[in-house]
Protein backbone atom coordinates (compact mmCIF):
# COMPACT_ATOMS: atom_id res chain seq x y z
CA UNK A 1 0.00 0.00 0.00
CA UNK A 2 1.42 3.39 -0.93
CA UNK A 3 2.36 5.75 1.85
CA UNK A 4 0.20 8.82 2.30
CA UNK A 5 3.23 11.09 2.10
CA UNK A 6 3.36 10.42 -1.63
CA UNK A 7 0.22 12.39 -2.44
CA UNK A 8 0.19 15.27 -4.92
CA UNK A 9 2.35 18.22 -4.05
CA UNK A 10 2.11 21.70 -5.49
CA UNK A 11 5.29 23.53 -6.37
CA UNK A 12 5.01 25.32 -3.04
CA UNK A 13 5.02 22.16 -0.93
CA UNK A 14 7.46 21.72 1.97
CA UNK A 15 7.43 19.31 4.92
CA UNK A 16 5.23 20.29 7.90
CA UNK A 17 6.59 21.88 11.06
CA UNK A 18 4.23 21.02 13.94
CA UNK A 19 3.77 23.63 16.62
CA UNK A 20 5.18 26.58 14.70
CA UNK A 21 4.20 29.95 16.12
CA UNK A 22 1.84 32.24 14.20
CA UNK A 23 3.78 35.31 15.30
CA UNK A 24 5.52 35.89 12.00
CA UNK A 25 5.28 38.01 8.89
CA UNK A 26 5.86 38.17 5.13
CA UNK A 27 9.41 36.78 5.31
CA UNK A 28 8.03 33.74 7.13
CA UNK A 29 5.38 33.28 4.44
CA UNK A 30 8.01 33.52 1.70
CA UNK A 31 9.68 30.46 3.23
CA UNK A 32 6.56 28.45 2.40
CA UNK A 33 7.12 29.05 -1.30
CA UNK A 34 9.67 27.61 -3.70
CA UNK A 35 10.61 28.97 -7.11
CA UNK A 36 9.39 27.21 -10.24
CA UNK A 37 11.54 24.23 -11.25
CA UNK A 38 14.73 24.93 -13.18
CA UNK A 39 14.65 22.71 -16.26
CA UNK A 40 16.46 22.16 -19.52
CA UNK A 41 14.88 24.00 -22.42
CA UNK A 42 13.44 20.83 -23.97
CA UNK A 43 12.01 19.66 -20.65
CA UNK A 44 10.46 23.07 -20.06
CA UNK A 45 8.87 22.98 -23.53
CA UNK A 46 7.43 19.53 -22.87
CA UNK A 47 6.11 20.61 -19.50
CA UNK A 48 4.45 23.69 -21.02
CA UNK A 49 2.90 21.59 -23.80
CA UNK A 50 1.53 19.06 -21.31
CA UNK A 51 0.06 21.71 -19.03
CA UNK A 52 -1.48 23.58 -21.97
CA UNK A 53 -3.04 20.39 -23.30
CA UNK A 54 -4.28 19.33 -19.86
CA UNK A 55 -5.82 22.74 -19.18
CA UNK A 56 -7.69 22.64 -22.50
CA UNK A 57 -8.93 19.08 -22.09
CA UNK A 58 -9.95 19.59 -18.46
CA UNK A 59 -11.86 22.74 -19.40
CA UNK A 60 -13.62 21.01 -22.31
CA UNK A 61 -14.49 17.68 -20.69
CA UNK A 62 -14.00 18.03 -16.92
CA UNK A 63 -10.92 16.83 -15.07
CA UNK A 64 -12.45 13.49 -14.05
CA UNK A 65 -13.29 12.56 -17.66
CA UNK A 66 -9.82 13.08 -19.12
CA UNK A 67 -7.27 10.26 -19.17
CA UNK A 68 -3.51 10.57 -19.04
CA UNK A 69 -3.40 8.91 -22.47
CA UNK A 70 -5.51 11.74 -23.89
CA UNK A 71 -3.25 14.37 -22.36
CA UNK A 72 -0.11 12.69 -23.70
CA UNK A 73 -1.57 12.47 -27.19
CA UNK A 74 -2.73 16.08 -27.19
CA UNK A 75 0.65 17.30 -25.92
CA UNK A 76 2.64 15.16 -28.34
CA UNK A 77 4.68 13.43 -25.62
CA UNK A 78 5.08 9.80 -24.63
CA UNK A 79 2.93 8.34 -21.87
CA UNK A 80 6.06 7.35 -19.97
CA UNK A 81 7.28 10.94 -19.96
CA UNK A 82 3.92 12.15 -18.70
CA UNK A 83 3.72 9.64 -15.86
CA UNK A 84 7.33 10.23 -14.81
CA UNK A 85 6.83 13.99 -14.65
CA UNK A 86 3.38 14.18 -13.06
CA UNK A 87 2.50 10.76 -11.68
CA UNK A 88 -1.24 10.87 -12.35
CA UNK A 89 -4.11 13.28 -12.99
CA UNK A 90 -3.91 14.65 -9.46
CA UNK A 91 -0.26 15.52 -10.08
CA UNK A 92 -1.28 17.28 -13.27
CA UNK A 93 -3.98 19.16 -11.36
CA UNK A 94 -1.46 20.31 -8.74
CA UNK A 95 0.94 21.48 -11.45
CA UNK A 96 -1.81 23.41 -13.24
CA UNK A 97 -2.79 25.07 -9.97
CA UNK A 98 0.74 26.19 -9.18
CA UNK A 99 0.70 29.35 -11.31
CA UNK A 100 -2.73 30.34 -10.08
CA UNK A 101 -1.72 29.77 -6.46
CA UNK A 102 1.39 31.87 -6.94
CA UNK A 103 -0.66 34.76 -8.31
CA UNK A 104 -2.84 34.77 -5.20
CA UNK A 105 0.17 34.40 -2.92
CA UNK A 106 1.88 37.35 -4.63
CA UNK A 107 -1.23 39.47 -4.08
CA UNK A 108 -1.26 38.52 -0.39
CA UNK A 109 2.43 39.28 0.08
CA UNK A 110 2.85 42.42 -2.03
CA UNK A 111 -0.49 43.49 -3.46
CA UNK A 112 -2.79 46.42 -2.60
CA UNK A 113 -4.82 46.43 0.58
CA UNK A 114 -6.90 44.92 1.97
CA UNK A 115 -5.83 41.58 0.45
CA UNK A 116 -2.18 42.60 0.53
CA UNK A 117 -0.28 44.98 2.80
CA UNK A 118 -0.58 47.95 0.42
CA UNK A 119 1.69 50.98 0.44
CA UNK A 120 0.01 52.98 3.20
CA UNK A 121 -0.83 52.30 6.85
CA UNK A 122 -1.18 48.65 7.78
CA UNK A 123 -4.71 47.47 6.93
CA UNK A 124 -6.83 46.01 9.70
CA UNK A 125 -6.22 42.25 10.05
CA UNK A 126 -9.98 41.62 10.08
CA UNK A 127 -10.31 43.38 6.72
CA UNK A 128 -7.39 41.38 5.33
CA UNK A 129 -8.92 38.12 6.54
CA UNK A 130 -12.25 38.87 4.87
CA UNK A 131 -10.46 39.91 1.68
CA UNK A 132 -8.53 36.63 1.74
CA UNK A 133 -11.74 34.61 2.10
CA UNK A 134 -13.24 36.45 -0.88
CA UNK A 135 -10.12 36.02 -3.02
CA UNK A 136 -9.67 32.38 -2.08
CA UNK A 137 -13.28 31.61 -2.98
CA UNK A 138 -12.75 33.35 -6.34
CA UNK A 139 -9.76 31.06 -6.93
CA UNK A 140 -11.52 27.94 -5.66
CA UNK A 141 -14.72 28.40 -7.62
CA UNK A 142 -12.79 29.11 -10.82
CA UNK A 143 -10.76 25.89 -10.49
CA UNK A 144 -12.99 23.70 -8.34
CA UNK A 145 -12.43 20.42 -10.23
CA UNK A 146 -8.66 20.83 -10.21
CA UNK A 147 -8.47 21.78 -6.53
CA UNK A 148 -10.80 18.93 -5.61
CA UNK A 149 -8.67 16.42 -7.50
CA UNK A 150 -5.44 17.65 -5.92
CA UNK A 151 -6.93 17.68 -2.41
CA UNK A 152 -8.55 14.23 -2.48
CA UNK A 153 -6.05 12.07 -4.38
CA UNK A 154 -5.05 10.27 -1.18
CA UNK A 155 -6.13 10.49 2.44
CA UNK A 156 -5.05 13.84 3.90
CA UNK A 157 -3.65 15.07 0.58
CA UNK A 158 -5.10 18.54 1.12
CA UNK A 159 -2.92 19.13 4.16
CA UNK A 160 0.29 18.08 2.42
CA UNK A 161 -0.15 20.53 -0.46
CA UNK A 162 2.22 23.41 0.19
CA UNK A 163 -0.36 26.01 -0.78
CA UNK A 164 -2.58 24.90 2.12
CA UNK A 165 0.25 25.57 4.55
CA UNK A 166 0.62 29.04 3.05
CA UNK A 167 -3.13 29.80 3.41
CA UNK A 168 -3.11 28.44 6.96
CA UNK A 169 -0.02 30.38 7.99
CA UNK A 170 -1.34 33.62 6.54
CA UNK A 171 -4.66 33.16 8.32
CA UNK A 172 -3.00 32.30 11.64
CA UNK A 173 -0.84 35.43 11.40
CA UNK A 174 -3.92 37.60 10.90
CA UNK A 175 -5.63 35.95 13.89
CA UNK A 176 -2.67 36.37 16.24
CA UNK A 177 -3.73 38.46 19.24
CA UNK A 178 -7.41 38.01 18.37
CA UNK A 179 -7.76 34.33 19.13
CA UNK A 180 -6.70 32.10 22.00
CA UNK A 181 -5.45 29.55 19.46
CA UNK A 182 -4.74 31.12 16.06
CA UNK A 183 -3.41 27.87 14.56
CA UNK A 184 -6.61 25.99 15.42
CA UNK A 185 -8.90 28.79 14.30
CA UNK A 186 -7.04 29.13 11.00
CA UNK A 187 -7.78 25.45 10.30
CA UNK A 188 -11.39 26.02 11.38
CA UNK A 189 -11.78 28.84 8.86
CA UNK A 190 -10.19 26.84 6.04
CA UNK A 191 -12.16 23.64 6.75
CA UNK A 192 -15.41 24.76 5.03
CA UNK A 193 -13.30 26.01 2.11
CA UNK A 194 -12.18 22.49 1.21
CA UNK A 195 -13.01 21.74 -2.42
CA UNK A 196 -14.86 18.48 -1.62
CA UNK A 197 -17.01 20.26 0.98
CA UNK A 198 -17.74 23.19 -1.31
CA UNK A 199 -18.63 20.96 -4.25
CA UNK A 200 -21.14 19.08 -2.07
CA UNK A 201 -22.81 22.22 -0.71
CA UNK A 202 -22.79 24.39 -3.82
CA UNK A 203 -25.90 22.86 -5.45
CA UNK A 204 -27.87 23.14 -2.21
CA UNK A 205 -26.77 26.51 -0.84
CA UNK A 206 -25.52 28.39 -3.89
CA UNK A 207 -22.48 30.60 -4.21
CA UNK A 208 -23.86 33.68 -2.45
CA UNK A 209 -24.84 31.85 0.74
CA UNK A 210 -21.51 30.06 0.86
CA UNK A 211 -19.65 33.36 0.44
CA UNK A 212 -21.76 35.08 3.08
CA UNK A 213 -21.25 32.24 5.55
CA UNK A 214 -17.48 32.22 5.06
CA UNK A 215 -17.33 35.97 5.55
CA UNK A 216 -19.38 35.72 8.76
CA UNK A 217 -17.04 33.08 10.13
CA UNK A 218 -13.97 35.18 9.26
CA UNK A 219 -15.50 38.26 10.93
CA UNK A 220 -16.28 36.36 14.12
CA UNK A 221 -12.86 34.77 14.35
CA UNK A 222 -11.12 38.12 13.75
CA UNK A 223 -13.17 40.08 16.28
CA UNK A 224 -10.80 42.06 18.57
CA UNK A 225 -9.71 40.27 21.71
CA UNK A 226 -9.38 36.55 22.45
CA UNK A 227 -12.36 34.49 21.27
Concise description?
The chain has about 230 residues and is an all-alpha fold. It has helices spanning about 25-30, 40-60, 70-75, 80-85, 90-110, 125-140, 145-150, 155-160, 160-175, 180-190, 195-220.
Descriptive notes:
The longest helix is centred in the C-terminal third of the chain and has 27 residues, at 195-221. Helix 5 (89-110) runs antiparallel to helix 6 (125-142) and helix 7 (144-152) packs across helix 11. It contains eleven helices and no strands. The radius of gyration is 18 Å and the shape is globular. Helices cover 64% and strands 0% of the residues. It starts with 25 loop residues before the first helix and ends in a 6-residue tail after the last helix. The protein has 227 residues and is mostly helical.
Amino acid sequence: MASDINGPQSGSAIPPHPGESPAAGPVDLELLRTPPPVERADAARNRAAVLQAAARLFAEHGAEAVSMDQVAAAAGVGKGTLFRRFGDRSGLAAALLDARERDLQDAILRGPAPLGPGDGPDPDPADRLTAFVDAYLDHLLAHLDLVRMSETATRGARYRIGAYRFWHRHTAILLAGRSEDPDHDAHALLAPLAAEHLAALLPELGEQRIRAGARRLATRLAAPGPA
